[in-house]
Amino acid sequence: MDQQSAQQPTTQSGDQSTQITPEIRSFLESLLADANMTTLDDGVKEEMISELYARLDNFLSSHLVDSLPPEEVENFITMNEEGKSKEEVEQFLKDKIPNSEQVFTDAFIEFRNMYLGNVAVSRNEPQSEPISPDAQTETVTTPTAEVPSQPKPDTNNPPENPKPDEGGSLS
Predict the structure, then answer these.
(1) How many CB atoms lie within 10 A of CB 112?
(2) In 3D, which of 15, 124, 105 has the Cα closest to residue 60?
(3) Along the 171 residues of the chain, how does pLDDT read in single tens digits?
(4) Distances (CA, A) of 24 to 9, 37, 121, 150
(5) How far apart are CA 9 and CA 25, in angstroms?
(6) Is the pTM above the cut of 0.85?
(7) Which residue from 10, 27, 28 is spatially nearest to 19, judged by alpha carbons?
(8) Facing residues of 17 across strands?
(9) How confident is the model at residue 93, as a pLDDT?
(10) Pairwise CA distance, residues 57 & 28, whole Å
(11) Rounded CA gap, 38 and 36, in Å?
């Protein structure tokens, strides 16, 4: 048995430790490879895998909630709050979302494209912030206000009526 399959890959969220399935780990590692992040040391790589997993989990949950019939959303939330087994949740989703496999496939593709797009943006425009996967496809940019340049004081012509500051000296 190789070293990677002997490890129990986990990510920690708060007090909980969640096991990352080999399929999800492979997907996340391929994201890092596609983003040319191949020279990471093991510690940094594991941190990035954990962070990506948390973002993917949130993204998938949001995507699934959007795909469920409105009357089933509360049941889905309750199942997650109660910590129902992975098998129970998967069966619920298969029963309630007619094309659940396609919904999952589309969500993974969208997450991948969004992540790689954010990496490209952050490499091309270092001062801009990457888009959060939680923001889905909406991009919000903060406009920057240009500060008009102040005219340089004319040392040949001082102001006509200089005003003293509170200490009595001229400003």
Answers:
(1) 17
(2) 105
(3) 333 333 334 444 433 346 889 999 999 999 999 998 887 899 999 999 999 999 999 999 999 999 999 999 999 999 989 999 989 999 999 999 989 999 999 999 999 999 999 988 888 865 545 555 554 444 433 333 344 444 444 444 444 444 444 444 454
(4) 10, 18, 25, 56
(5) 8
(6) no
(7) 10
(8) 12
(9) 94
(10) 12
(11) 6
Indicate the residue type of 169.
Answer: S
The residue segments making up the domain with residue 30 are 17-124
DSSP 20-42: PPHHHHHHHHHHHHHTT--S--H
What's the CA gap between 171 and 154, in Å, rounded?
Answer: 15
Cβ neighbors of 29 (< 8 A, separation 6 or more) are 49
What is the number of alpha carbons within 13 Å of residue 141 lying toward its C-beta? 6
For residue 85, what are its two tokens? Answer: 């087994």
Q: Is residue 26 part of a domain?
A: yes
Six token digits for residue 119: 């990496």
In a domain, 140, yes or no: no
Residue 165 lies in a domain: no
Place of tokens 């943006």: 121
Query: Within 10 Å of residue 10's Cβ, how many Cβ atoms?
Result: 14
Split into its structural domains, the chain has a count of 1
Domain membership of residue 84 (yes or no) is yes
